[in-house]
Description:
Layout: H1 6-28, H2 50-58, H3 65-106, H4 113-157, E1 164-168, H5 177-183, E2 194-195, E3 223-227, E4 231-234, E5 237-240, H6 247-251
Antiparallel strand pairs: 1-2, 1-3, 4-5
Amino acid sequence: MAGISNNSKDAIGKIVEQLFDRMGHSLLGNIPAFRNKKTILFTSNPIMTLAHLFMQGLGAYRTLPKEEEAMKNMLSTAHDYLEALKSRTKARLTESVDSYVQEARARGETPSETEIKNRIIGALGKAKNDMRTIAEAESTKARNLGKAMNIARVGASLGVSDPNVFFVMIKDKSTCDECKRLHLAEDGVTPRVWKMSQLGFSYHKKGEPNPKVCGLHPHCRCTLTLLSPGFGFKNGIVSFIHEGYDEYAAQHGEAA
């Protein structure tokens, strides 16, 4: 039994393309993949692309070559996520509408335009939710990656090749156990100090032994922060201890 025509499949494809072009522009900005596409965005909120968030975290007006490369790789990865989601959405929506039309015709019925529209609306709604999840995760990654590059800059200026870092936490009822486990010392008050080289740059999996630059989970509110030489913690608050003091060494039972 015949399903939808090739023209109908093309029309569905264009609907999906337009949706993802709009979302892609708002998240990624005018990257080469969108440079020749005309897309109009209507919004009352400032558009904060991943590049904007990266530069905010970096805290610099100019990027070094390695920082620019890191930003390009981040944008490329986010674009790949969107392309994969777009392909899945297009395939699922086309299959959903095509199978419905075939089933209706097999029953001797005329396919309902309302049912077809509902299937399209449902699929696009799910795509928007999936896109929101990607945007939230990639935004956290962009901001924290910029912050990590900034810490590397400051560390280099201090003559420190592997800086001490910790994560500032928001402690409330929403704070998760995974953040507490990796970001706090055993007393539950003092931030746990890590070497920058110990942090991972991939997405975190629950139970892994080290924290990740891009956050431990979606909506992670913990902020990567440099701990300068000579500084440590008193009652969980960053404080100057004495010249040459090393909080990382102190927490690990080494000479400080």
